[in-house]
Design brief:
By secondary structure, this protein is of the alpha/beta class. About 45% of the residues lie in helices and about 15% in strands. It has helices at about 5-15, 20-25, 30-35, 40-60, 80-90, 125-135, 150-165, 170-175, 195-210, 255-265; strands spanning about 70-75, 105-110, 115-120, 140-145, 175-180, 240-245. Strands 2-3-1-4-5-6 form a 6-stranded mixed β-sheet, sandwiched between helices. A hairpin with a 5-residue loop joins β2 (about 105-110) and β3. The N and C termini lie far apart (about 55 Å).
Length: about 260
């Protein structure tokens, strides 16, 4: 007597008479092909196939860390990131505040209709500890650089960007990154996006080379590979998607930043 309910048994028996199913059975492991010629064997083969598929999905999913729900805004002191934060939050300059010594958090209403939580991380030297915690729950990062003062501040900006790129949470989650070239409204003084890209890539190449032989704190980043080490550093070689765009917090030229944040949440 079959252990299958009679209606199920009859339906499976009818299926076995179809040539298309017989062709599909040929793709099963050899041991299952003969067993699948009976309704009971076909039911077992089907259940095994489903179970193996679920296990495969679980195995693939276990290696991926789910991204968070907010976007982190960070960058060096006086790059304009806090002004950018307040403009995104409520369209204000917050009484002309230039720098923040503590983390700011708010919600930005985007032109796309979405609402996004945004975190403004202080740019002073103690930011590393705050950054570590913040990136754990992030969906993306906006790194603000000063397009006007880039030439004189390129080392400082590259070092902070290196800290972001080699952060374990950033690396594992493959967080998208926007390098927002602020103060682009000052056209005669601001450097172009392409010049900033090449300058940062050159600085990051030098940092990658020097820190690869570091010890102590730098050694913790040695398992984070910033692109092919046998080639000059390039943002295109990173696991995360990195884009650069012009913006101006004070002039409210924020469309590129808002579009990026919308794509993250």
């Amino acid at each position: 007597m079959s252990w299958l309910p009679e209606p199920v048994h009859d339906q499976l028996q009818q299926l076995l008479e179809h040539s298309q199913l017989q062709q599909a059975i040929k793709f099963l492991p050899q041991d299952l092909q003969s067993a699948a010629q009976t309704p009971e064997g076909l039911a077992i083969a089907f259940l095994l196939t489903v179970a193996l598929g679920l296990l495969l999905l679980l195995a693939l999913g276990s290696g991926k860390k789910k991204r968070g729900s907010y976007v982190v805004i960070t960058g060096p002191v006086n790059s304009g990131k806090s002004t950018l934060f307040f403009q995104l939050r409520d369209g204000s300059e917050h009484n002309g505040v230039v720098a923040s010594m503590q983390q700011n958090e708010g919600v930005s209403s985007l032109p796309s209709g979405k609402k996004a939580r945004i975190l403004d991380i202080p740019g002073h030297h103690s930011f590393r500890t705050t950054l570590d915690k913040s990136l754990e729950g992030a969906a993306g990062v906006v790194f603000v650089v000063d397009a006007v003062e880039m030439s004189s501040r390129r080392v400082e900006e590259a070092e902070m960007l290196y800290e972001v790129l080699t952060n374990p949470s950033f690396y594992k989650q493959r967080l998208p990154l926007l390098i927002a070239c602020n103060k682009a409204d000052m056209e005669e003084e601001a450097h172009t996006v392409e010049w900033i890209r090449k300058t940062l890539e050159k600085q990051l190449h030098e940092l990658r080379s020097s820190k690869s032989v570091g010890i102590g704190k730098d050694a913790a980043t040695q398992n984070v590979v910033l692109g092919p080490t046998d080639k000059p550093f390039s943002f295109k070689g990173l696991r995360s998607k990195v884009v650069l765009a012009e913006c101006s917090a004070k002039a409210q030229q924020l469309s590129e930043v808002q579009g990026f944040i919308s794509s993250c949440v």
